[in-house]
Amino acid sequence: MSNRRRSQPGRLCASTLAVFVILALNVQARPANMSALKDKHPNSKEDNEILPPDHLNGVKMEMDGHLNKGFHQEVFLGKEMEEFEEDSEPRRNRKKLIEIFTKVDINKDRSVSAKEMQRWIMEKTEEHFQEAVKENKLSFLAVDPDGDGHVTWDEYRVKFLASKGFNEKEVAEKIKNNEELKVDEETQEVLESLKDRWFQADNPPADQLLNEEEFLSFLHPEHSRGMLRYMVKEIVRDLDQDGDGKLTLAEFISLPMGTVENQQAQDIDDDWVRERKKEFEEVIDSNHDMIVTMEELEEYMDPMNEYNALNEAKQMIAVADENQNHNLELEEILKYSEYFTGSKLMGYARNVHEEF
């Protein structure tokens, strides 16, 4: 995969952008995975425990094929993300960011190299992995009522429907007696998608039961190469308009809404096209043939790919590398704090050396 180039400000020329928008508007992209149901039913704690999340920390794309806009911050902050809230105290954030810089700077030369940033990204990604493992233990307990260490599809289906407002005892009785479950079309569609995903997570020899490790890959496909591949296939299926199992640029930038109703929506759609075009051309399409294969998308989405982490490190450095020495100094990382943490710091350069 080629190195990422530094992001340049500005917009696509009007004619070029218009072509991409027209191409995109010809396509009605259907929502992928669980998004539609989640929009209809606000997530409760129980939903979060048993439904595969659309968003996966440290993974470059969402389950529904959207780009993960918080990716840079996730792989830079790891489990400390919540400490950098927008309304948190700037001086505290500044101190915390300086502490992070000193940890990334392994050789203590007061600058961060691409290799040092790569190591840090891999470490923070592992933190997200461990957090998912910890949460999965609670999720598994929620769907394993008899505590036998295995969950059947029927056990999961009962808990899922109960979380959607169905009477758990009635559902369990109907399933036990092989009676028809009366659910709306949207819920049935999600159930079918979940069932397919369930059996994909059932490692061979298939026994139609999921243990705790298999349930982890059911909820978090990034923990299993096979399930990551399944996630990629689902995304390609949802974007692939001609059914050839590959993605062209026009397919990748297809607009989810299908129409542009006002100027605000037009601006959002323009951003969508521009961001996805850049990611397609500069990052995902590793051989630059203007076609993204499933293999390329799988490599792009693999959070534990060290080569991806190195490219990510180089891109993160390029964004803030004002003196163009291919390293990051403390002044630079403080100045570009919003990119790294999502939080702006006022007076970023004040007494930097004394504090450091």
TrEMBL record:
Superkingdom of the source species: Eukaryota
Residues annotated as signal peptide: 1-29
Family to which the UniProt record says this protein belongs: Belongs to the CREC family.
Chief location bin: Golgi
Key words of the record: Calcium, Glycoprotein, Golgi apparatus, Metal-binding, Repeat, Signal
SUPFAM superfamilies in alphabetical order: EF-hand
Protein name: 45 kDa calcium-binding protein
EF-hand domain sequence ranges: 92-127, 131-166, 232-262
InterPro entries with a match to the protein in the record: CAB45_EFh, EF-hand-dom_pair, EF_Hand_1_Ca_BS, EF_hand_dom
Species whose genome carries this gene: Cyprinus carpio carpio
Compartments where located: Golgi apparatus lumen
